[in-house]
Amino acid sequence: MEDGREEKEKGVEESLLESAREKGGFRTLPFIIGNEALEKMATFGLSPNMTLYLINEYHMRMTTAANVLFMWSAATNFMPLVGAVVADSYLGRFHTIGFGSIVCLMGIIILWSTAVIPQASPPPCDQSSNVCISATTFQFLYLCLSFGLISIGAGGIRSSSLAFGADQLEKNGFHKSPGVKQSYFGWYYASYTLSVLVALTCVVYIQENLGWGVGFAVPGVLMLVAVTSFFFASPFYVRFKSSSSLITGFFQVAVASFRNRHLKFSDSMSDVYHCKNGSGRVIPSEKLRFLNKACVVRDVENQLTTDGRAANSWRLCTVERVEELKALLRVVPIWSSGMIMSINLSQSTFPVLQAVSMDRHITSSFEIPAASFGMFVVVAVILWVVLYDRMFLPLASHIKGRPVRVSTRVRMGIGIFLSFLAMLVSATVEAIRRYVATKDDGKVNHPQSVVAMSALWLVPQNFLTGFAEASNAIAQNEFYFSELPRSMSSIASTLLGIGMCLANILASSIMNTVDYFSQQGGDESWISSNINKGHYDYYYLVLAGLSMANMLYFLGCSAAFGPSRDDGKPLEEEDEL
């Protein structure tokens, strides 16, 4: 009797110890998602007011400041691609996130030093003579160093956090259940937008009221907390080993298929294809068939080693690697439509200048900081996620009598259309603001003088932009994770950021082109540093025209893509390639 009780107690103790030793699960998500949320809270707390910081403290022209910020944003959105390659092929996701967190902290500290060390930035303008001294080469490079480190650090964090969080949920059937996947992406994005909301309100308010020194110190403290909390939970993370370089493998497939371009296919059952060891016999798909030539074995003795590996990976690749490249190429057209939409989302410089010239008072003693109007975009994102996930889907499922979900491509299309509407509203509001400003001759030459128009007119365009971003961006992430093999999960999580990177570069080119042509003949540029003399409303109409063309392009790409894995069908677990 006692022996039985002792064995039972021992079994309970072993069960508890085994449970304590288990890694992953939902308990690790607060540290992973929290790390990225704090990073975004820090970096997004820096960017809104950066336009005013560069113009007022570094004495830059509006177009120069906008170009600097476009390039910084492009670098920040491009570095996750580098981070994804490093994570998937060399360091693994945990070490990539950890490295990125530390580097990002260093960048914020350097940026903070530009506000507190007089020699690190240009001296203030001489108010009596209105003469401003531009930054020296050293001061400008020192500023760019801080931007570069922040971009590198953000790339390490953002490239792997989404996929690293998904790794922790493998035991919960993440790849089997569309519901778990959709809910994870939705709430992950909601946590990110909540952190941005805090950045655009609290951090921006501190910068405007307590100065740049304190305002830049707060993001540094937030980033320090992020680094500490992430490493604190390190014993509990599930960590998958990195594999061979995907990017190198893609180049190998392209080179091998080109070298074998004269190879003639025989009957599909008689061709011998090179497969990954232990995967059994796998036949490549018929889509993008010319790439299949990279994995056809013509001479077993010369092309394969004794252990079944390719003797030269630049002449013979595995079926799995060929299929990975095919999957990536298939999503590129739809991905490019999201890139065009991101041009509209990157227009953060101009709304700040608009808000500066409008009445921002909520009460007689409190006014919203000009850089905080971006918070309405974030509020709209959160509202969209909550209403869609907690109201629309349950209500639609109740009415239909079965589970209902809207496909990713439908939601992407809705986002692109809402983005088009946002640009039309932006153009209309700016036309009204400019008309009110030009009626008073005394305010035409003073762009920072407040016109008799409430800044709350900017709220509708921000809400439309937020709804567009929530609908399109969340759907893009789901689409990439569904269509790409599990081995490419880090790259899947960075495709949205890469699109935003190219969007920033295109946005800079579009702005410079409009600036150049609009001032031909001695006219004032549409994108003048004096917002009252420029025509930002015309610039918004140009973006609206591009958005309409992008809508038609997306519909064509979606039709050409054909059926996807989430078009109303249950997702089945995908074999890892």
Keywords:
about 575 residues; disordered C terminus; about 65% helix; globular; mainly alpha; single chain
On the 0 to 100 scale, the average pLDDT is 81
Helix-residue proportion: 55-70%
* Count of helical stretches: 18
Oligomer: single chain
Q: Got a strand count? A: 0
Shape: globular
Alpha carbon gap, first and last residue: 53 Å
Q: Which class do the helix and strand fractions yield?
A: mainly alpha
What integer value in Å does the Rg equal? 27 Å
What is this entry, summarized?
With 577 residues, this protein is mostly helical. It is built from 18 helices and no strands.
Q: Would you write up a description of this structure?
A:
This protein has 18 helices and no strands. With 577 residues, the protein is an all-alpha fold. Helix 3 crosses helix 4 and helix 5 runs antiparallel to helix 6. The longest helix is centred in the middle third of the chain and has 33 residues. The C terminus is likely disordered.
Summarize the topology.
Layout: H1 2-21, H2 29-46, H3 50-56, H4 62-91, H5 93-116, H6 137-168, H7 178-210, H8 212-232, H9 246-259, H10 300-303, H11 319-345, H12 349-356, H13 375-400, H14 408-439, H15 441-444, H16 459-483, H17 489-518, H18 536-561
